[in-house]
Amino acid sequence: MKSTQFGIRLILLTVLLFGLSRFAGAACSKTILVAYDDWIPYTYTQTDGTVVGLDAEIIAEMMKRAGCDYQFRQVSSKRAFIELKNGAVDMLRGASVTEERKLLGWFTEAYRQEEIRLMIRKGEAQEYPLDRLKSIIGTDILISAGQGWYGPEYAELVKDERFQQQLLITHSNVQRVKMLERRRIHMMLGDPISMIHSARSCCKISRFAIHPLSLYSGEVHFLLGFESLQPSDKAAIDSALKSMKQDGSLRAIIDRYSLN
């Protein structure tokens, strides 16, 4: 009789502990499908299928603290907002706030800055005391950029024939870094995290620095879809982000991808 009672108690305890463990790992209303595209070094797929990168690391720690299960789903950046609206994915990363996007979901707290800066050779910042990009016009400074958006000032300058004469368009960050290292250009334009990653992949990172001039800076957020998530999901994720900011873990992840 005693052995039977002991067995029943053991079963009940096992069920209880299993239930508690499931509850502890299920703070969100569902397994969250995170849309991503290959954008090195923020999110990209390794040969074994693992999604890695700066944002991937932030998401992993954030979801762990929130007690939420998640999966990555590869979706093009253009398609991602449509999928969020339809509920096919639940969360977008790297989203800036617009009125149109506010109709699709909740923005979490900001988790990092999106910037456009200039990379130069280390020790040469004093040679280029720029307070705006326009200051290079009429000098011997050569600059390189890709076919992208580099802030409002650049968007206007690129129409100026004088600026065009000092601008070299290339399609590879690594190519631009090598040109900078070999002194074929004086500076390159881009997202500092991406430029630093490219410099580390091909050259000695100690040879480069980020110029103090900022051409654009804005906060980015995670965007959680109205169609498939609940307000409680946003609360859990925001709470996780706050704790990461407070204990410095968010800053530590970002710093691993920076020159700090």
Q: Please give the number of β-strands.
A: 11
Radius of gyration: 23 Å
Integer average pLDDT: 91
Give the biggest sheet. Answer: 7 strands, mixed
Unreliable segments (pLDDT under 50, ≥5 consecutive)? Answer: 1-8, 10-25
Provide the succession of SSEs: HEEEHEHEHEEEHHEHEHEHH
Q: What percentage of the residues does DSSP assign to strands (E)?
A: 15-25%
Note the total helix count.
Answer: 10
Keywords:
single chain; alpha/beta; seven-stranded mixed β-sheet; 23% strand
Provide an overview of this structure.
With 260 residues, the chain is α/β, with parallel strands linked by helices. It is 40% helix and 23% strand. Strands 5, 6, 7, 8, 9, 10 and 11 form a seven-stranded mixed β-sheet that branches. Helix 7 crosses helix 8. The radius of gyration is 23 Å and the shape is elongated. The chain starts with a helix and ends with a helix.
Summarize the structure.
The protein is α/β, with parallel strands linked by helices.
Produce the secondary structure layout.
Blueprint: H1 2-24, E1 32-36, E2 44-45, E3 51-52, H2 54-66, E4 70-74, H3 77-86, E5 91-95, H4 99-102, E6 105-107, E7 112-121, E8 143-145, H5 152-157, H6 161-164, E9 167-169, H7 173-181, E10 187-190, H8 192-202, E11 208-225, H9 231-246, H10 249-256
Parallel strand pairs: 1-4, 8-9, 8-10
Antiparallel strand pairs: 2-3, 5-11, 6-11, 7-10, 7-11
Helix pairs in contact: 2-9, 7-8
